[in-house]
Amino acid sequence: MPPVNERTIYDLRASRNHHFMDAMRYLGYVQMAREGTRRIRDSMAEYNLPEPQFRQEALHGVVVRVVLQNDHEVRSRSSDRDVAMHFGVEQWKLMQEHEIKIAAYTFRNGMIQVSEAQRLTGRTWATSKKDLERMCRKGIMIFVAGDYSRDPKAHYKLAREPDSKE
After folding, report:
1. Which domains can be identified in the chain, with CATH numbers?
2. What's the whole-model pTM score?
3. I need a surface site. Which of 26, 52, 95, 133 has the fewest CB within 10 A?
């Protein structure tokens, strides 16, 4: 909505229906105006990714399109062979299929949370939590607690860090 465009997207706000936006805020679906674009920008910066690129286009009216880029240098790409070699072929052979998925994801991303393991394996949250705890007992993973009970920053990481390929 004018006057918002690619240059003013972080600073200005304009909604088509102000009453609807007030209702959404009252119901708790949004916290404040301009929250989404600022949160995208801040999240990208937190992960050392390039800033979002907003581009205004005329496509059946005026549209502002956002492009989010994943900097290929931030996360190293690895093959299944690299992952298997990290754990050792013998250890890899002893792991169940869902454990291999969890271990490979953690190897590639540096950490995993229970919800990510749940989505990855298709198992329930409680079962995924038990899977991660079992992997800790096996010495494959370690638990990194958050600052308080039920902290969303709590996660699991590999017991032994992957060798860097520099």
Report:
1. 1-74 (3.30.565.60), 80-158 (1.10.10.10)
2. 0.51
3. 26
